[in-house]
Amino acid sequence: MEAEGPRDASEKEEEDSEESRQQDLEDGEKSDISKDPETEKPNEFSTEGKEESEKESTEGTILGDNLSQPDLADGEKFDISKDPETELDAEKPNVSATEGEMEVPENGSSDENKPRKGSDQEDQADVEKFDSSKDYAGEQDAEKILEPLGEEEDEEQEEDTEKSPEPEKKPEKLERKISETFFYNYEDLCSQPFVTSDSGIPINLLTLIHSFGYDCTKSANLQLLDSQTLLYVAGNQLVLLDLKTKYQSYLRSSSGGGIGIITVHPSKQYFAVGEKGWKPNIIIYEYPSLKPYRILRGGTEEAYAFADFNHYGTLLASVGSSPDYMLTIWDWKQEKIVLRSKAFSQDVYKVTFSPENEEQLTTSGAGHIKFWKMAHTFTGLKLQGALGRFGKTAVTDIVGYVELPDGKVISGSEWGNLLLWEGGLIKVELCRTGHRPCHNGPVNQLVLDEGELVTVGGDGYIRVWDFETIDAADSVDDTGLLEMEHMNELLVGKNVNLSSIMKIHDLGQPIWYAQDSNGAIWKLDLSFSNVTHDPECLFTFHSGKIEAMGVSPVTYLMATTALDHSVRIYDFIGNCQLTEIKFKQGGTALTWAPRVVNPKGGLIAVGFEDGVVRIIEVYDPRGLAIVAGRTNVGNAEMRLKQAFKPHTAAVTALAYERNGEVIATGSKDKTVFFFAVEDKYEPIGYICVPGPVQALQWSPPSHAESMLLVLCENGFALQVPAPILGEQDTVSTYEIKDLPTQYFHFCSIKSRIKREEEIERREKKKQEEEKARLAWIKKQQDMGLEIEEEPEAEPKKEEPLPPIYVPQEPSPIVCGFYSAPGKFWLSLGGYDSGYLYHCAFSPIQHQISPESRQDEPFEAIPMENTDDNPIQRISFCTSKLLMFCGMKDGAVRVYPLQDKDLSADMMNGYWSFNMHDNDYGQIQAIYSSYDDRFLVTCGADSNIFTFNILSPEDIQRELKAKVPSPRVNLEKEKTAEDIEDPSAYSIENAKQKKEYDQIMKAAEDKKNKKRQELIILRHEFHHLLQRNMELPKHMQLHREEFEMDHRIREEMDRQTAQRIQLVQKELAWDQEKHRIGLQKLQSRFRDTLEFDTVVVHAIGSNHQISTYRLLAISERYYKARKQSQTGKRRTSKLGKEAEQRRESQKETSQAAGVSEEAMEADKLKKRPQLQGAIGRFGGNRLEQIRKNMEKADRAKAKIMQRRKEWDELYKSKPSDNYENPKDVQDIKEAQENMGDFKLKTATNYKIPEHMRMNAEKKKVQLRSLEVAVHEKKLTMNKWIISLRDLKVAIIEEIICLVQELKSIQSALDASEQLPIPPIPQLHPEETPEKKFQYDKNILLKFKQEQENKQRLSEQVEDNASFAVFGGKFLHAPSLKEIDSPSRGSSVRSMRITSSVTPMQPKVFEIEKAEPTEMELEILKREKIRNIYLQETLIKRINELVVTFDAELHLLRHQKLKLDTQMKCADLRHITWFEELLLLKNFEKHEDTLQERVNNLSNEVEEMQWKLDNYLSQMEDKKYEIAKLQEREKALYATFQASLGENNKFASFLTKVLKKKIKRVKKKDVEGDRDEEEDSDEESDDESSLESDEEDSGSDDEVFDDSVCPKSNMWLASLQVKVVEASLDTAEGELEAFQREKQQRLNELHVVVPLKLHQVEYVVNGELPTDLSQTLVFTNQSLEYLQQRIMVLQHEKLDQRELYKQARQQHKQLIRDRREIEIRIERLEENCNQLMLMKFGRVVDLEALQTLSVNINLEELKMKMMEKEHIQAQELKNWEEKIFELRQRLMMLMKENTSKLQQLNSFCIEKQRLGMKLDALQNNLGAEFQGPRKAEIQERERLITLVQLQAQEAEVLKEEITLLSRKDGRIFPPPQPPPDTKILN
Contact 936/558 with Cβ under 8 angstroms? Predict the structure, then answer.
């Protein structure tokens, strides 16, 4: 609903009278308290008045009988930045009296945009806010209705302090809860159509009739309310579908923003609807009354993605979509948020409660799965989320998962495998055998049903798996994969993509309903029995976006198409689908042929995504003639009439010309094709347009000319006239190039319009201000007041006007239509949305190119609320009085038109209603029926809705859709040929191809003609050559002379080479393809074969021997074998753990002693430093102290070493009950084994630990056996192959010998020649590897075959064959080349022997003559030699053959033995494999028992270790106590000595010493550390006193605080006994289980081959027929048992003798010990007497030996000496400074004395001069009696000089005074500036 809706509604509500509201109350309806239009904040409560007039307040507001739960507080914000893993505390309900006011609830709708429908459709209730300060009459009743919760407050409410602080609590406030019987009013909640106020448009202009669609791609959009009612979402509607009657019920969304999710309560009594929009609500409806029961507010920002009830239905979990992804847990009955948190930062698909533990939840989504837990913390209940970590597994989107009872979670994956999660990690990944995925596609849902796991896959399969196998699954190798097979599976159908299934019971039988994302709802039977029903498809729908729709011009039928490859026909009066037809490609455009084309209305044209246009007939099959074998059941059928392909891209628009003579098709390939409409559509031609075609529209009949308006997506509009068939030249192309075309390139004017509106607004504002100013002046003048002229104010600085903006890329044209000839209206998207633009084609067309045009509309009508919501489709009713608009947000708008021309005044009022999904449900088509009674819409959300247009409901009962009757003889016509190949040629491409083929045919004809001419010339040339050959030789011409130019031959050779290279390049891909194929074959079949079967035949006999055919064994077998060997080593290491633990106990018991030794060692380390420090000052004393300390340290070290040796000696002392472990083990072994051979079949047989077998050990055995067998066979194969190689070498040697033999026999007579032995040959089976080798002859033969097959030229084929088949096969040389090295080595000796034989050719080269005697003798010798060599060679050949046959015979005998062993190994392998299968069955229970035994054993060892640790600690503490007691005694002795005798404070001080002071805790001490640092000296003394008193505490208290009490030790020992008893029981159970397992293993049959001499079980000298009681026993064991009898007898005698000797030795040791004890006592007495004689008392010798100087006292003395030395140095330095200062003072005094003497002499001289002057004056005359000027100046100068000297004297005195002080400093005296006059 539009944003302006609530404002207009609220204005009208304020204008309504009190009477209308009173009437509403009398009618029993709720007061509609909607949002305040000023603040747009929802009120908190809604009421339903039970006592209307009596309880009404003066303002007209009523408190109802029930109150709803309010929304979150208005300023409350959720801060996810605090802790993303934890949740907010439960929010407090605002229904408490602590709010200070009772607020009336809103009308139930969270959308502020919907006015309430009252008793009258145009009457609106007044909107008021509830004032808490007023006294309402209904408060008492409200208090009666609200039920108090009691005094116990919710913990979550108490702890909610993080988000908003609680207001000050007022006394006696009770929390309220909502009554169980409270319901909301649906009429107040559901959204209503928006109607512009004062428009006069009725609110019921459109009424929903039926919904034909189903959003099958929406998650979880199929729910079950009962066995016959389905629930799903269709746009803004909630559809309840009755399966029996096919009747649909609808619930509207309350917000008008759409519905996000639906979920059903486990009891099926309620269902929740999560909406979309700003701050959407979740509304709980009660079923079957469909009353709104609860409203949950504030769960998310924009939309809900999923919701789920817990197992008991008390809680509801919801998760929001972008942007907040908020996870919220609701107490839905109280409309209260319990917990909430941000689920993730990406899309979340699902949230569910764990069925076993409701405090655990799971969420999953894009690339994640998260595990949540409700945890009680100190701040309250929190949600803690743990993100699942994929580890080595690839990250996947998780859509489906299920929680297992034990807390594990199993989820699906995108590649079809199952992931088992445990502890936030992937435990194992499950797949089928052969690493096949569980599903070929994503696993969309998992269901745990009756102990079985059901998985639903996108591949259309439902598979059932064994739950126990999955629950116990674990990875077996590093891949993390575990292979298993499903128990049952069901293939629902082909092309099925299951997204979810739901189960319900009908008459006790489980029934499943499935949601198919490919557009279907299925009914399934998953019982998997003999009577299981096949899957039943209940409904089919379009899958995904509906691309196009058309309405019949003659009846109530509509056709739709979508990308799901289907075209469907609906009867929107009968509310049913009539028929559908499927094609290979998806449909993108559709139009219904008008009446002028098909008066029956039975023809539709459909465009597809591959560019094909199909003409389809719709007819009633009941009108066809009845044909045998066909039953006309359906009401309608479709039949392909014609198919043609005018485009190469998707068809986007189809339009019939108004006269029905032409149809135009537009496509994304930027072409518009025209066809002549006839019985068969004939192509006329096509035009190219500047952009992809968006829409096509022909001019209406009111226009004079028939013109086509072409709208392109990129802002172009074109107008062309209808072409006429036959006027265009279509011989070579269908393109029409001379068709008159007018262009319009849209240029944006929106920014200019906005600028003009802003200017107008500012001018209007100025005029209003001026008008108000003049009115005020006039008012002042009327009042008689004088108005002072105000100075002109400075003009205000205005904001700049909006800039002119034109987008670089033009806004896309969405739709448009003609208004007048050459004029049209456009609706644009993008930046220019919000207006309808009136445009016209410019008369100036040819002067400007279309791309450079910038055309502006001459008029623009603003459309309300369409700036971000453009109009997608516009259509008109037949009368043109209503304009229907389909919006991008799925809303339907209706504009009433008083005139056929549009204007701004006419577009002010409109009717609007949100029907389709607001996010992705943009309307794709909107049409009215042919009689304007109905409106049909389809959207991108797969939904189709039909509406009544102001018609009563009973009309549709009388109306009926009529399917067009079929054409005459339709059944006799052949079905039109369809175009199924998407790559088929389009009409234009076919025309171009045909033209190209004609050109190529002409070229080939010309080539053939030239070839014939060349053949004739070639024949003539051959004839000339023949004639030339017939000429005499001297007259014949050379061949070169026939060659006119050698360059021609060179050019031909060059061209041939180029062609060869070209052919090689062309065949390069095939060559690589065959090479890779061969490589794959070899890797699959040859590389895994380690040895092929090689049969070696004997040369002189029929014996033969063959190798074993061996497959290469995998490396994991060798690794497993190594692991088994290393495992044995590990078991030996495990036995050492107990010893290590015992050693650790010993170490802890020695901790105290070690610590003391460490302390002493530290002291020893520190002493050298102290000695170094002292050595500088002490001299001989220090050296003496050092020696004493070293002596004491050596004595102490010696004593400590002796103590340590004694301790070790005492520790090594065995106890009285000590027994040698080796003896105990030998005795135990003897008792168990010696002299007794237990059979495994015995009832009391106890399986030894090392002989216990499990599945893993058995696997290791099998692997070891396989490896051993493989190694044996491999060794034998190597011997046989070496024998084969020997045969090859022998054959080569025989060949050489035969050649030598033939050369020798050539010199002998025939009578002397012996028969040559035959040369043995290699059989083909002896060299099977040669099958995969080739040589040149093979290639040439293959080449010849290829030439015969392909009949290609010799040169090309020669190169091609080598190019194609020169790949992977090895080039095999001949046999001689292979074995030449061996041949050379084998016949080397023969060559040496034959080298002496002369060359025979020389003998025959002698000319025949009479031989001499010498020559005869030589010939005779040669003959004898040749005869000898002949015999030798034949003998050598026979020896070679015999030797080889002997080797083969011997090896054959060994192989026969090995065959016997291998057969036995095979039998053993079969037995072990059977045992493995049996052990696997026992493995789970055995592991459980073994784990229990191991846990108990570890627990016993741990507790025993603790117990031993406690004992060692007690011993250590006792030792410490003894030392502390000694220190206490010494302390008391020191204390008594300090007191002295007759101390009057002795008793008081003794009490203080013995006073027990409570210990200060460590935390308190640390907490008060700062205060103690700031305290005064008195507190320091007290704290020191306190610490001293603490240290003086009793020893018992120290022991009690630090040592485990005896009661704890007793409990620990008791627990050890209990656990040991449990361990014995568990070991007994394990032993019984092992015995049972052994009995089952004994039942297996074992094959043991025996010979007759091995059978000793004979009855009456014969072998019995029944051998069941026989025992198979090895001879070695039997002999060992017989010999053991004698060995045990000898051992028995030896042990008796040994016992006698030990007993005698024991007695001797007892006597020796007594003697040593007596000697020790005597030595102690002597020692004590010596000490009494020397010291007068018994003293501690160890203390005496370690007695040395007092280290602390000596250190203090040394420090004191060092201080005295330092101070002496300082004193000396000061005395030196004083002496220097005294010397300086003396010098200054001398200087001053000399100056004083000089001053004295000056004064005497002055006096003398004065006397002389007086005398002179007296002697002067009268004229000289007065003073002279020069004398006066001299006198002044002298006076000044005297004064300066006096000042200097004073300064010297001060300096003397200062120097007499120690710290005095001398400053220069202040001197006045010198007077040059005086000095002069």
Answer: yes
Rounded to 5 degrees, φ, ψ at 1018 are -65, -40
Amino acid letter for position 1147: E
485 half-sphere exposure, CB direction, 13 A CA radius: 4
CB 885 within 8 A of CB 843: no
* Cβ atoms of 1319 and 1290 closer than 8 Å: no
1845 contacts 1806 by C-beta, under 8 angstroms: no
Average pLDDT for 854-867: 90
**pLDDT for the residue 1194:** 83
Q: Residue type at 839? A: C
Residues, the chain: 1880
Q: How far is Cα 1778 from Cα 484, in angstroms, rounded to an integer?
A: 106
CB 461 within 8 A of CB 486: no
Q: How far apart are CA 637 and CA 577, in angstroms?
A: 11
- CA 1485 – CA 469 distance, rounded (Å): 14
Neighbours of 391 (CB within 10 A): 8
Q: Which residues contact 91 (CB under 8 A, 6 or more apart)?
A: 72, 76, 156, 160, 163, 336, 337
SS3 call for 643: strand
End-to-end CA distance of the chain: give it in Å, rounded.
Answer: 116
Residue type, 1335: D
Helix axes 1751-1819, 1151-1174, angle to 10 degrees: 30
Tens of pLDDT, residues 113-149: 443 333 333 333 333 333 333 333 333 333 333 333 3
For residue 1647, the Cα-to-chain-centroid distance in whole angstroms is 53
Helices (H) and strands (E) in the chain, counts: 35, 66
Neighbours of 706 (CB within 10 A): 16
Whether 30 contacts 943, CB under 8 Å: no
What would the pLDDT profile of 1291-1319 be if each residue is shown by its tens digit?
A: 999 999 999 989 988 888 888 888 888 99
Q: For residue range 1762-1771, what is the model confidence (pLDDT) as tens digits?
A: 888 899 999 9
Nearest Cα to 305, choosing from 258, 338, 250, 359? 258
Query: % helix / strand / coil in the chain, to the nearest 5?
Result: 40, 20, 40
**Cα–Cα nearest to 1560, from 1537, 1594, 1589:** 1589
Q: Is the separation of the CB atoms in 95 and 178 below 8 Å?
A: yes
Helices 1546-1554, 1413-1539: inter-axial angle, 10-degree rounding: 150
Instruction: With cut-offs at 50, 70 and 90, classify the pLDDT of residue 690.
Output: very high
Residue with tokens 């000052």: 1177
Helix (H, G, I), strand (E, B) or coil at 674: strand
The pTM of the full predicted model, rounded to 2 decimals, is 0.55
329: which strand partners?
Answer: 317, 339
Nearest CA-CA partner of 1097 in 1384, 1438, 1330, 1441: 1441
Segments in 1175-1211 forming alpha helices (H) = 1180-1211
373 SS3 class? strand
SS3 847: coil
Name, in order, each residue with C-beta under 8 angstroms of 371's C-beta and a sequence gap of 6 or more. Answer: 360, 361, 362, 385, 386, 388, 409, 421, 424
Q: How far is C-alpha 1102 from the geometric centre of its chain's CA atoms?
A: 68
- Listed in sequence order, the residues at least 6 apart from 1801 whose beta carbon sits closer than 8 Å to its beta carbon are none
Burial class (CB within 10 angstroms; exposed 0-12, middle 13-18, buried 19+) of 750 = buried
On whether the CB atoms of residues 1788 and 1856 are closer than 8 A, the answer is: yes
Distance CA 1238, CA 264 (A): 67
d(CA 1678, CA 1676): 5
Q: What are phi and psi of 1120, to 5 degrees?
A: -60, -35
Q: In what order do the strands lie in the sheet with 452-457?
A: 443-449, 452-457, 461-466, 488-491
Asked whether the beta carbons of 908 and 196 are under 8 A apart, the reply is yes
Residue 1117 amino acid letter: Y
